[in-house]
From TrEMBL:
Domain named Histidine kinase/HSP90-like ATPase: residues: 24-176
SMART domains: HATPase_c
Source species: Maribellus comscasis
UniProt name for this protein: Chaperone protein HtpG
Domain of life of the organism encoding this protein: Bacteria
Residue numbers binding ATP: 31, 35, 76, 81, 96-97, 166, 328
PANTHER family: HEAT SHOCK PROTEIN 90 FAMILY MEMBER
Keyword flag Coiled coil: yes
ATP-binding recorded as keyword: yes
CDD domains per UniProt: HATPase_Hsp90-like (cd16927)
Coiled coil: 588-645
Gene: htpG
UniProt xrefs under Pfam families: HATPase_c_3, HSP90
Length: 684
């Protein structure tokens, strides 16, 4: 028996592996099985070149669990090793600058393993001792057994082994007993090894017999050696893609369609990406793309490796140009990964464009399930934005679809304002904003539906890109003001008149902490609604964007500002105003006379102050001015109170405000009940 010391220049290697890979220590099985697969493939290669005469048709890797012996054994019938090769590949980890490297990467064991092929040593994370029993494919080779208990010391001795290949026997330590459970091992193998290119056997297939699971004679192969992405697209049918999707994701909706990637220059990349149905609430389902390197699972956390918006997709990417065992920060800075990311971005856009061109009708049917993904890409990737403009679609309130270019042609003649801006009218809810939509249609306008969570951000992006285009929500103003064609010729009330009328209708606006109301008066014509509630486009859009970002800015906390537009030409409004004049006319006239007199006196005193310093103004005049201003404020307050009291008691005024609220879906609960009862009273 030979004994020796592993040629590592720092004895800290084992503690580093054990400590810093502990959080992800199930990776040991991937490493050992992957090494076994490599050994098997190497022997196949030698056989294909005539350098090995043995039979390689039954190439396989077998994983065995022995709970009593507390061992996990990974066996292959691959290339095997001689004693000299063990010395070279296992004992002499004397790479240059090892001390310096270990010190630099002591907090990142993945980097150690990935850079220097130390995957075998990950077995010591879970083992108190590891035995390697191996026989080389070379003629007349002596089988040998190498043993190590996790210290630099090892033993090596000759043993009997009939078949070519290697057995790695891991004697599981007390801290890792969880890996001695059959289901746990099966779960790890399914995660890391289910698409390896060599058959991986784990026990026997089971069947239900006499009330319990029993082993059958058939080996349990846990992997699919030729998954769909390794085949040519021409060799696959739609059902093959669907079947593979179900292999990846047994639960969930069917995908909309897929992209099959097959690139061999300037890097190698294969894979299948699926477009899932994405919900409007934008619950980003990360960890859905699985990253492989030569069919060996690397990670399902691909943020920073592929463009952010592509993390919404499902599927598989495989590239031997992606390092197998390195940290994500390393992956993100790797030049090949960046090239791959850029290429996938382009391929996804090209595929979407091709689907749009080949079958626009089907593309339109899938648009509502697809748009969030496309919008997210347009918002986060400039190159994708430019490409997506070819197939981005607007859906209008009639349910018809248009490309950006088609829609511009449709509305250009009728929806260009007096300042040459093209106005895109949109709705976020066709039911709640129905009356506004109908009013706009009556004007000959077309309305698009932008009802998803990313719409406010996308609108801003469109407006930034094209300054002569504006998006206006259909309920942001009265229909006459949505698209200003010319300066208004209608007579508007003076500011003083509005001040006199505002308290009447302000008094019947709902008191709600979420809304604030500003009363305005406009001539909307006798056929127009008596009152219309509109929402400031700017403030509402800011609040929508705030909500999408979690409400973490000042707009999220502010009450929403509403405009209550009173139609001064409507007969019902005129009726309220006539009632106001009849009941309060003489009282308001008397207060008005007093206010005018007070203002006149104030004006005289203010004029007398002109050109004088503060100390030059007589004290008596100052006191008189303060007294007049105080009296004036009292008169103004008294006038407002009388108008407010009148408004509160006027059922017709309240009814018209409630009708406007009802049209906006804002009348609910007790207020809706009162409205119904009041309606009955007014009808009688």
């Amino acid at each position: 028996m030979q004994t020796g010391k592993i040629g590592v220049t720092s004895e800290n290697l084992f503690p580093i592996i054990k400590k810093f890979l502990y959080s992800d220590h199930d990776i040991f099985l991937r490493e050992i099985v992957s090494n076994a697969v490599d050994a098997t493939q190497k022997l196949r290669t030698l056989a294909s070149k005539g350098e090995y005469k043995g039979d390689v048709s039954a190439a396989r890797v077998e994983v065995k669990l022995d709970k009593d012996a507390k061992t996990i054994t990974v066996s292959d019938n691959g290339i095997g090793m001689t004693a000299e090769e063990i010395e070279k590949y296992i004992n002499q980890i004397a790479f240059s600058g090892a001390n310096e490297f270990l010190e630099k990467y002591k907090d990142d064991a993945n980097a150690i393993i990935g850079h220097f092929g130390l995957g075998f040593y990950s077995s010591f994370m879970v083992s108190e001792r590891v035995d390697v029993i191996t026989k080389s494919h070379k003629e007349s080779s002596q089988a040998v057994k190498w043993s190590c208990d996790g210290n630099p010391e090892f033993t090596i001795e000759d043993v009997e082994k009939e078949d070519v290949g290697t057995d790695i026997v891991m004697h599981i330590n007390e801290d890792s007993k969880e890996f001695l459970e059959e289901n746990k091992l099966e779960e790890i193998l399914d995660k890391y090894c289910k698409f390896l290119p060599i058959p991986v056997i784990y026990g026997k297939k089971k069947e239900w017999k006499d009330g319990q699971q029993v082993d059958r004679d058939e080996d349990n192969q846990i992997n699919e050696t030729e998954p769909a992405w390794t085949k040519m697209p021409s060799d696959l049918k739609d059902e093959d893609y669907q079947k593979f999707y179900r292999r990846l994701y047994p639960i969930g909706d069917e995908p909309l369609f897929n992209i099959h990637l097959n690139v061999d220059y300037p890097f190698t990349l294969t894979g299948i990406l699926y477009f899932p149905k994405i919900k409007n609430n934008f619950e980003v389902q990360k960890n859905k793309i699985q990253l492989y390197s030569n069919q060996v699972f690397v990670t399902d956390s691909v943020e920073g490796i592929v463009p952010e918006f592509l993390t919404l997709l499902h599927g598989v990417l495989d590239s031997p140009d992606i390092p197998l065992n390195v940290s994500r920060s390393y992956l993100q800075s790797d030049s090949n990964v960046k090239k791959i990311s850029s290429h996938i971005n382009k391929k996804v856009a090209d595929r979407l464009n091709q689907i749009f061109k080949d079958n626009r009708e089907d593309f339109e049917k899938k648009w509502d399930d697809l748009k969030i993904f496309i919008e997210y890409g347009m918002l986060t990737e400039e190159k994708f934005y430019d490409r997506a403009m070819n197939f981005f679609m607007f859906k209008n309130a009639e349910g018809k679809y248009f490309t950006y270019e088609e829609y511009e042609k449709l509305i250009k003649d009728n929806q260009t304002d007096k300042d040459k801006n093209l106005i895109y009218l949109y709705t976020t809810n066709t039911e709640e904003q129905y009356s506004f939509i109908e009013a706009a249609k009556d004007k000959g306008y077309d309305i698009i539906v932008l009802d998803d969570v990313l719409a406010p951000h996308l609108i801003n992006k469109f407006e930034q890109k094209q300054s002569d285009k504006r998006f206006v929500r259909v309920d942001s103003d009265v229909v006459e003001n949505l698209i200003k064609k010319e300066d208004s010729a209608k007579e508007e009330l003076s500011w003083e008149q509005k001040q006199d009328l505002s308290p009447v209708f302000q008094a019947v606006c709902p008191e709600d902490k979420d809304y604030s109301f500003i009363v305005d008066f406009q001539d909307l014509g006798e056929a127009g609604a008596p009152m219309v509630i509109t929402r400031s486009e700017f403030m509402r859009r800011m609040k929508d964007m705030s909500a999408a970002q979690g409400g973490m800015n000042m707009y999220g906390d502010m009450p929403e500002s509403m405009n209550l537009v009173v139609n001064t030409s409507h007969p019902l409004v005129k009726k309220v105003l006539e009632s106001k004049d009849k009941k309060l006319g003489s009282q308001l006239e008397k207060i008005g006379t007093e206010i005018a007199a007070q203002k006149e006196e104030v004006s005289v005193l203010e004029k007398a102050k002109e050109g004088k310093k503060e100390e030059e103004v007589p004290q008596a005049d100052k006191e008189k001015l303060d007294e007049l201003n105080s009296k004036l404020a009292e008169l103004e307050e008294a006038k407002r109170n009388k108008l407010s009291d009148f408004g509160k008691k006027n059922k017709l005024a309240k009814q018209m405000v409630d009708l406007a609220l009802l049209a906006n879906g804002m009348l609910k609960g007790a207020d809706l009940d009162k409205f119904v009862k009041r309606s009955v009273e007014l009808i009688k």
